Amino acid sequence: MNELHFRKELLRIVFINIFFGHDHNQMKCPLPELYTFWDRHYKEIRNAVLELLDFMGRINLAGDLMTYVNQQLDTSLKKTVGHLVVSEKDIDLGDHFIKQISTRYHGEYNPSGLAARLTTKIRLFGILDNADPDDLISKDSVIYMQWFMHHSLKVIYKENSKIVVLRRNWRDGQPLKTFLQQESAGYLYSVDQTGGLFFDDPNSQMKYFQLSCAIITQIWDFAQRRKKIFILKNLAGNEK
User: Fold this and answer.
1) 229 assigned to some structural domain
2) Higher pLDDT, 207 or 170
3) What is the pLDDT of residue 66?
4) Total domains in the fold of the chain
5) pLDDT band at 74 (very low <50, low <70, confident <90, very high)
6) Is residue 111 part of a domain?
7) CA Rg, the chain, in Å?
8) What is this structure's pTM?
9) For 146-184, b where at least 16 C-beta lie within 10 A, e where not — what string?
10) H-helix or E-strand containing 211?
């Protein structure tokens, strides 16, 4: 594992964890393979994040950040609501999540407000999951693409419902036979510590490649649709 990449990802996770008020108990190393890097960097990164957030709070930069994030999210939601009707019940289902978010920041744009907006969007995606999205929203819409990516991640999550880290022999670097025998079912792939994904079953590899190809094809289709809109719009403008 690349140590620099580990530090970047740990910084990202710790920042989000503390910013949204979930740092009541310090995080623990999730895997024994990460312990060396974790022990070396976690406390240092956590202290740096605490100092950064304290500075952001003193100059009200945290509030400005939340304002920007919420404005971008609101713009996206307004486009969505124009196509779909969201019931109060759907929004209320996210209350348990909203209550977990810190309300340290005052005003309209705060972590709680952001959670409410995110929950609304997730519920909208849920409506699309349970219906034919083509009947509700155009395929050239950015919202459609956002839903599709969210849906695709959910499909992969269901196929690979647990995170499995490949165990290798420390002497020769080969996957442990005992690991392959013990963990041969119940997941699509395992995360390789040396980078990438590891498939111990050709059928699982084929299924993952099929999902990946479907995603790439959909992205390509979306790009072509948007390109067509752009070209027709510019042609119409030139005719005027």
Assistant:
1) yes
2) 207
3) 66
4) 2
5) low
6) no
7) 22
8) 0.56
9) bbbebebeeebeeebeeeebbbbeeeeeeeeeebeeebe
10) helix 202-239
Tokens 């340290």 correspond to 104
| Complete DSSP assignment for 6-66 | HHHHHHHHHHHHHHTT--SS----S-GGGHHHHHHHHHHHHHHHHHHHHHHHHTTHHHHHH
Q: Categorize the per-residue pLDDT at 234 as very low, low, confident or very high, splitting at 50, 70 and 90.
A: confident
Domain that holds residue 36: 1-59
Token pair of 198 as six digits: 């590891």
Q: Are 119 and 92 in contact (CB under 8 A)?
A: no
Residues with Cβ within 8 Å of residue 40, at least 6 apart in sequence: none
What is the pLDDT of the chain when averaged over all its residues?
75
Establish if 200 belongs to a structural domain.
Answer: yes
SS3 assignment, position 198: strand
- 198 in the Ramachandran plot: left (φ > 0), alpha (ψ -120 to 50) or beta? beta
Residue at a domain's end among 32, 59, 86:
59
